[in-house]
């Protein structure tokens, strides 16, 4: 009897849900947009130093806001792809698959609680942020505070997904040997 190519081995982790894959794609697309606007803002600032007629103060503010956007939008993506800081030392010390599952489950629970708390704080910043505007462009800061809210809400969802998959060994996005190169 042969296995069909569509059947995973019995100890393989369940396939990522399409929702998580689409969420990751959307986050990456937004992060790429912010990376592009960051590059444009910085290049505009450099151009403004050499061509005074092209100098625009708003370019610096756009670059700063884009950096904030990249930072917070990628929170959920990094949690979903195991790109956050992990406690690999504890995971290596614990013997047996049950112990490693407990370590992963506890870390996913803590990550979920932390992301929930940060989501709540970001929500309160959004509520209060529309009373203030940015100094140069006059953008209400509530719109800027939506970025941490979206990022931490996505991080909460991804952390819950990690909790569901805590029973399965999944490689980290970056291992220590790769980081030391």
From TrEMBL:
How does the protein's chain sit in the membrane according to the entry?
Answer: Multi-pass membrane protein
For this UniProt record, give its keywords in alphabetical order, as a comma-separated list. Cell inner membrane, Cell membrane, Membrane, Transmembrane, Transmembrane helix, Transport
Pfam families registered for this protein in UniProt: DctQ (PF04290)
**Superkingdom to which the source organism belongs:** Bacteria
Q: Which InterPro entries match?
A: DctQ (IPR055348), TRAP_DctQ (IPR007387)
Where is it mainly found?
Answer: membrane
Which compartment or compartments is the protein found in? Answer: Cell inner membrane
Q: Which residues form the Tripartite ATP-independent periplasmic transporters DctQ component domain?
A: 39-165
The residue ranges crossing the membrane are 26-47, 62-80, 101-123, 143-164
Q: Which family does it belong to?
A: Belongs to the TRAP transporter small permease family.
* Protein name per the record: Tripartite ATP-independent periplasmic transporters DctQ component domain-containing protein
Q: What is the lineage of its organism?
A: Bacteria, Bacillati, Actinomycetota, Actinomycetes, Micrococcales
């Amino acid at each position: 009897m042969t296995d069909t190519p569509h059947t995973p081995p019995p100890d393989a982790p369940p396939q990522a849900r399409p929702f998580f894959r689409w969420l990751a794609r959307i986050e990456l697309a937004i992060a790429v947009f912010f990376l592009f606007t960051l590059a444009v803002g910085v290049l505009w600032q450099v151009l403004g130093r050499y061509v005074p007629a092209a100098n625009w103060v708003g370019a610096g503010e756009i670059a700063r806001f884009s950096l904030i956007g990249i930072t917070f939008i990628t929170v959920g993506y990094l949690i979903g792809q195991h790109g956050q800081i992990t406690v690999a030392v504890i995971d290596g010390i614990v013997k047996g698959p049950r112990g490693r599952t407990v370590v992963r489950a506890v870390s996913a629970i803590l990550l979920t609680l932390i992301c929930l708390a940060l989501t709540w704080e970001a929500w309160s910043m959004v509520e209060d942020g529309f009373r203030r505007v940015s100094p140069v462009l006059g953008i209400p800061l509530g719109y800027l505070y939506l970025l941490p809210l979206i990022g931490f809400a996505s991080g909460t969802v991804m952390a819950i997904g990690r909790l569901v998959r805590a029973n399965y060994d999944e490689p980290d996005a970056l291992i220590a040997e790769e980081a030391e190169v």
